[in-house]
Amino acid sequence: QKEVEQDPGPLSVPEGAIVSLNCTYSNSAFQYFMWYRQYSRKGPELLMYTYSSGNKEDGRFTAQVDKSSKYISLFIRDSQPSDSATYLCAMSPGSFQGAQKLVFGQGTRLTINP
Amino acid sequence: ETGVTQSPTHLIKTRGQQVTLRCSSQSGHNTVSWYQQALGQGPQFIFQYYREEENGRGNFPPRFSGLQFPNYSSELNVNALELDDSALYLCASTSGPYGYTFGSGTRLTVV
User: Fold this and answer.
1) Measured on CA atoms in the order B32, B38, B40, B45, is the torsion positive or negative?
2) Which residues contact B64 (CB under 8 A, 6 or more apart)?
3) What is the pLDDT of residues A48-83, one digit of tens each?
4) Phi first, then psi: what are they for A110, rounded to 5°?
5) Contact A104/B at CB under 8 A
């Protein structure tokens, strides 16, 4: 079993739709949770990060973490064609100055259709 | 200069050869990590360097090795290349538990 599970999609929605992306994980030591966006032929770009459980909103993006269920989500409101990319969840136990290793999901390929 | 810079962008090598990939960290970042991303997969942690010392390693064999220099730039070396080493190699730098900045990667093809 992988430490982090993410549905690879692909996911295709019309412009303006609300998009929900999700990951589940098995390691209860994870404390830092991140969402990255990766365009084709580019490196991952940090979108959102949260510490422990709770919600965080930034513009059209909302990240949610439910540690009791070991489940994290990213919501995109009013989706735009420019949001078309692969979205990667990542998490870490947060031992900075030690092995600060990010564990990634497989990535979900998202297409927003005009 | 901001951002993480990796070189080269693309590379083709023959099985059994050795390769060195390079990374310039974002200014102010003293920690650098390397990741391998196979096609259609998420990045996999190779190792991390903090102040020129390796302080964490993923499930990769010893033929994957690295260096971090006093200016926090870094190298990833892979010996005895195998076909399965074909992937996008990503360098990421940070100065804290968040805010990992990734480079655009080096696409390595082993033939």
Assistant:
1) negative
2) B46, B47, B76, B77, B78
3) 988 888 899 999 999 999 999 999 999 999 999 999
4) -115, 135
5) yes
